[in-house]
Specification:
mainly alpha, elongated
């Protein structure tokens, strides 16, 4: 596995202190503020699944099913 490269970022001390509290409360899940921040950023940046694109035929079938269920 290739070694990760890192850069420094600046955050307000008040936020850093809140994250320190979260790290302590995590009961070992996070080893450091850096681990916590990396985890949170990865969660935020995960790619959203692409929206499903239906063919006109599929759309009609969906509408038919919704009508039969009383939704349309």
């Amino acid at each position: 596995m290739p070694k990760k490269e890192y850069v420094n970022i600046r955050i307000p001390k008040s936020i850093y202190e809140k994250i320190e509290e979260e790290v302590r409360a995590s009961q070992g899940e996070f080893k450091s503020v850096e681990d916590y921040v990396e985890f949170v950023l990865n969660e935020i940046l995960k790619e959203e699944p692409e929206e499903t694109v239906y063919t006109p035929e599929e759309e009609e079938e969906i509408k038919r099913r919704l009508r039969s269920l009383g939704y349309l």
